[in-house]
Task: inverse folding
């Protein structure tokens, strides 16, 4: 098997046909080039070059080796260059997913800010259902996603929180809570709380569907729903209640569902998530553009 430095020395000398110029291109001494070629020839068993005091020429075996290895070496070099460019965010495509219309609106702004900073990198946007976010990241369908937090799982990086919104309780319009102006976390002990799918991280499921109130009273858990629309449909049908973010009042107004604010619940948080092993420069740059956008829109451009 050829070592990288041996192949570089051979290919360069085959093009330059001059030991001095080859050494200059490779930033090594002429003696190092000569030693490398001699060692390579000993391993192959025949001369690769014919040397005289006046010139250097490829031998028939050397020419065959050059013609067969040069295209492969060029392909490797090109592939490596493209990988470097993609990692630095100079070229390529960044695939971004979002979950829900409110996240989609924020993502459009972050994408515009990112494109202004990195015009040579294209951004492709896709909508994902909440249970699809992590599988899409893991199988490589997307590079980064804007979704609700917390998504605490091995191998997953949660970026900075971009949005915090008031937590509300979605209840059927005929439910006693619908006639109130506010509810508390203790009120959940008097209702059945719908669940998120078991395929989601426990951190998110515990945040949306706690097992007990702050005072330790048990909370009855109902069935789970795969999508937000399914969740609200179950709420409207009287199957239970669900904790949601305040954006639901704007984007998911329904005649069968009322949204009642909590007085004592932590806000619902949203942010970017990505694979730890997929933290390319493009991903980090997109995260920074999104954070700059929400902190100060003027800094994002």
Result:
């Amino acid at each position: 098997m050829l070592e990288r430095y041996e192949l570089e020395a051979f290919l360069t000398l085959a093009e330059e046909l001059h030991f001095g110029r080859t050494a200059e291109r490779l930033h090594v001494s002429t003696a190092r080039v000569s030693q490398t070629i001699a060692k390579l020839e000993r391993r192959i068993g025949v001369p690769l070059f014919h040397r005289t005091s006046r010139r250097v020429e490829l031998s028939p075996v050397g020419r065959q080796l050059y013609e067969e290895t040069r295209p492969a070496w060029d392909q490797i070099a090109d592939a490596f260059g493209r990988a470097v460019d993609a990692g630095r965010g100079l070229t390529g495509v960044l695939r971004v997913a979002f979950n829900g219309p409110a996240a989609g609106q924020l993502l459009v702004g972050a994408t515009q800010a990112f494109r202004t900073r990195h015009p040579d990198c294209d951004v492709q946007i896709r909508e994902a259902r909440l249970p699809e976010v992590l599988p899409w990241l893991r199988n490589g369908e997307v590079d980064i996603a804007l979704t609700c937090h917390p998504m605490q799982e091995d191998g997953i990086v949660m970026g900075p929180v971009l949005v915090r919104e008031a937590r509300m309780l979605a209840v059927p319009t005929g439910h006693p809570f619908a006639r109130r102006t506010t509810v508390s976390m203790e009120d959940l002990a008097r209702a059945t709380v719908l669940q998120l799918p078991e395929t989601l991280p426990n951190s998110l499921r515990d945040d949306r569907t706690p097992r007990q109130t702050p005072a330790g009273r048990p909370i009855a858990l109902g069935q789970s729903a795969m999508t937000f629309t399914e969740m609200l449909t179950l709420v409207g049908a009287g199957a239970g209640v669900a904790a949601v973010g305040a954006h639901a009042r704007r984007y998911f107004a329904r005649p069968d569902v009322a949204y009642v604010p909590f007085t004592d619940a932590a806000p619902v948080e949203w942010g970017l998530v990505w694979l730890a092993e997929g933290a390319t420069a493009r991903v980090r740059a997109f995260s920074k553009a999104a954070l700059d956008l929400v902190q100060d829109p003027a800094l994002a451009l």
User: Anything to note?
Assistant: Residues 4-88 form a domain with the Arc Repressor Mutant, subunit A fold (CATH 1.10.10.10). The chain has three domains: 4-88, 93-161+270-295, 167-266.
